[in-house]
Amino acid sequence: GLPTMASEAASGGSSSGAGESGKATPDPMSAEGLVRRHENRQVLLRRVSGLRGRIHQLEEEVADLERTIKGLPYDVQRAASSSDGPPTPRRFSFAANAFAGGVALPLAIGCMHPLDTVRTRMQAALHGEGNFTQALRGLGWKGFVRGIGPSIIWAAPQGAIRLGCYETCKSALASGTLGPGPLSVSVSAVVADLASSFVKVPRELITQRMQTGQYTSGWGAVRSILQEDGPAGLLRGYTCDAPFMVLLFFSYEQFKSWKIRLTFADQGPAQVLSPWSDAETVLWGGVSGAIAGYLTTPFDVIKTQVMTATGRAMSFREAVRAVGPFGLFTGAGPRSAW
Length: 338
Fold this sequence. Notes:
- This protein is mainly α.
- The chain is built from 14 helices and no strands.
- The longest helix has 40 residues, at 31-70.
């Protein structure tokens, strides 16, 4: 509309006058022509002013989006170069992920150790403590912190190896042939569990034997196990927690994906890049852990039976027979809460 209006203003409205049959075109320098040119000029100025207002509004929206994107853990350049896919999370180094895992896991285990002790006592069922109340009564106040020291110390390398391997493997698979999705998450979870099991299994073995009262110190437990069974004794009950890890990380990644979809639908694309708050991270991480913990309780019960067995090493088949079908979900409540 601007070129047409500008031409009309330059000609003093001659094109409009020419369109009226039987009327002569007014002289541009006449009073009527000057008035028409002034009116057209005012229309143009109002349009220009409106366009400037819209441009200013768009500039403010762009500035807001830039400030939002700069504060997010995403690779902006990679996301900007790919308009078809979702924004790509920023990749941290193996060392950064290992440090985060080495701090987070000991903190979580230290806070939840009393509940884990109750779970272990229920599953081991030493003294007939098969339910939550009986396990609490059999522990006493000092019993809640049995094995907490070795558990926290061993949890640092376990968390570092697990999270470092998981994130590194997931990034490599997501950028490769598998692409981002459930398969890459599942494979990464299995790899992370296998890599960290050489630290996790001795930690759980020593901790659970202290929780059930078989040993009073971590070093005493290590010396006794080495004397009785040799180095292989530290890996007694080595069972892959792959089902738990797959369910844990897969559900967590799905919750993040659902959050992005809901945000996009409710608030528009500008809010999709907003990261999780600390409260959301804790909430959905806890929900994922509870789901994975409850569904994999049978594996945990069998592993606890094998690890806490005294004397001759108990086989997987013997543990299954000892537990029975009604004992497979013993301690499911404390395990899910833990």
